[in-house]
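ok so I'm stuck.
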Amino acid sequence: MRGPTKKAAWVAALAVTATVLGFVLVTSAGAIDTPTTLTFVNHPVNETGIDVNGNHELDPADGWVNHSQLLEDDVVVGKLVSSCQYVKVSPNGMKGVLQCVLTAELAEGQITVQGRLALSPEAAPGLAFAVTGGTGDYVNVGGYVTAEPIEGSMDSTVTINLVP
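replied:
not stuck anymore, here's the structure
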């Protein structure tokens, strides 16, 4: 390249670099820099079961998708969307292992979660899943999520423990 073309390429490269740096600074400006705990009431709004074979029996790949509201002091502050699929089912259908993927959508960004959930009549209630990442204020976070049922309702208490 020579003359004006080389100068235009240099200016374009600087503009792209500045844009990328600006985006990185803006998206990480409010990022979490100390361990943080968020607690919500998870209130299910819509849940749909998936019967892959249509046989009304529990089979691997069956599962459900869910949309819930996340509440703080009875005020909606976000939503939780999830999808769980059975990866293992006992012959009598009384036990199963699910693989679940969840996303908490909050004003400050999204938090992604995934984990394995074993279901059986003797299993303790609740769950613990890994935080796999996030966006916005939650970019580059890790940690774990626990959920405990609230007695007498379909709601649960969700605690998100984040580490930078």
